[in-house]
Amino acid sequence: MEGGKMSLVFNAGAFAMRNQLTAGMQLRSSLRSFAKENNLLSKKDEEFLDALDDFEQQQIEREARRKHAEKNASGIRQRSNVFSSLCAPRATTSQQAAQKAKQYEAQALSLAQQARVSAGIGDDAAAQELERRSLEATQYANQMYAQEMQLARQEAQERKAKLDREAQDYIEEKKAKQAAEAALRAMKQRRLQEAEQKRCAALNHLETARKAKRKRQQADIEAWGRRVTEGQFWIRQMQLAQRGEHPAQRLAQASLDAYREANSSVTAIAPSFTPGAERTTRGAAGSDAGRSVSTGSITTNMPGASSYLPEVIAA
């Protein structure tokens, strides 16, 4: 690009010099105009004047090329430091390598253009040097393009490794969350099981307490029954003794009467805990049909009677 700009500047300068009129050219132009006005200008004279103008113009252009070559050589020396700074084909990123490759490529094109200009003006040494530098810049550009591809692959691998690490971290985090949720569910389940066990233990304790209470109540009823039976027995025994009845008959009759009265009393005290209470109460009038009294023993079919009757002592 730089060589193109320089060529454009040189061509513009040459065009300006080509249109610039020297003193000899101005004089010949005046003579040409005067001869045309007076019809004195022949074709041969016009060609001669044109040849003189062309010769003088060529001299001017040759001098301009010489000055331009000198200026170009000084510019090459000034740009040698700039080129030497680019002669280190090293980069840390693919973007930097691409930028350097483009700079080397532009430098190679500029040097090639300058080499063609130098060869055009006959400066072969400068043209060879510029051509060598152009080839060197081209090699550096190719090296930077290769380095750009290598760095791009490395950067792609690093990005892939980073994505893999992020994915692995996400998986580990997800597993940790799942494990925490599972532990929380297990803890809740254990708490529910413990609560259920405590509830069952409380129900068992309550049932045990209820059974113990029923046993105590039953024991109290039995104790009251024995006391009432014993009291009724001795009361009946005294009544029979006052009537002067036989001892065995008195004992049997006192036992049965005492049991019947004690059973009625216990039913009145705790009807819900006395087995056969309703049947005993309703069938009290006909209970004599199920008993038989003898002289030596007592036989009865009343439920629970044996637990309340004292031992019958034979007369």
Automatic annotation (TrEMBL):
Keyword Coiled coil: yes
Organism, as annotated: Mobiluncus mulieris
Domain of life: Bacteria
Biased composition (Polar residues): 292-304
Coiled coil: 52-114, 146-197
Name listed for the protein in its UniProt record: Uncharacterized protein
Region named Disordered: 270-305
UniProt keyword list: Coiled coil
